[in-house]
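pinned: reference chain
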Amino acid sequence: MKQDRTARTPLSTDEEGFGPLQEFYVLEPTRCPYLENKMERKLLTEISGPLAQSTYDRLTLAGLRRSHRFAYRPACENCNACVPVRVVVDRFQASKSLRRIARTNADLSVELGPNKTSEEQFALFDRYIESRHGDGEMAGMAEQEYRSMVESSDIDTRLAEFRDSKGRLVAVCLLDWLADGPSAVYSFFEPAEARRSLGTFVVLWLIRRAEQAAARHVYLGYWIENSRKMAYKTRFQPLEGLVDGSWQVLSSTPPSFAAPPEN
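pinned: its C-alpha cells
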C-alpha cells in the first residue's frame, strides 16, 4: 500500500492501554467501491503486538475497522458518507421479516472457533465472490490471500461456520471479539441459497451471541445512506452511528431506501 503522508500522533498513556505513540498513515486515493464518481482515501494504523487488543478496542469506539493487522477509517476529501454503525443489543427487537428469516434458518448449526482457514471455506468464498462481487477488489483472490485475510490478526479474532442439516458449509463469518461485543469483519455465504437470506441471518446470529455473552454492541462496519449494498444494515434496530464524534441512534428508515433489500 502506498503512503503519501505520515502522522505520528500520541493517543494515550501506557496506563490506559496504549503505547506512548500510535503512527497513522494516509493512503493514496483509489476508486470508491460504493459511490459512483467518487475516490476514497483511508487513514491507517498498525495494530500488532501485546497492546493490539486494547488499542483496537479504543480505535473501534472512534469508528475504525480492522483489515489484517491494520485498523483504518475513511479519510476522503469533501465526503463523509461512511458512517460507522453498531446494533444496541439489549434494545434490539426483531421485525416480522427478521423473525421469518430466523425460522427459515432454524436448521443450521453454528460452530465458533479460531480464525483458521480450510479448502472448504475458500471454495465457498470463491463461489460467493464470483457470484456477488465479480467486479470488485476481491475478485480473483488466491487461496493464500484469503488465508492472510482470515489469519493475520493479533487480536481476538474468531470464525463462525454455518452448516445445514446435511453438514454442508453454507455461510462463514469472520469476526473480532471486542470489549463491548463482536465486530463483523467479513461474511460470505452460498449464492445458491438465496431464499435463506444468509447475510441477514449471520447478523441475527451475532446479535444473539452477543446477548448470550451480555455484550452491549454488535459492530457492522460502515453504512452509506445512498448505497443499496449497505441498506440492509438499517433493518437491525436500534442502530447507532458515529456522527459528529458521538454515537447516536440513526433513523429506522433511510430516505433513499424505504425497503432495504435482504442480504
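why pinned: The first strand starts at residue 3 and ends at 9. The chain is about 20% helix and 30% strand.
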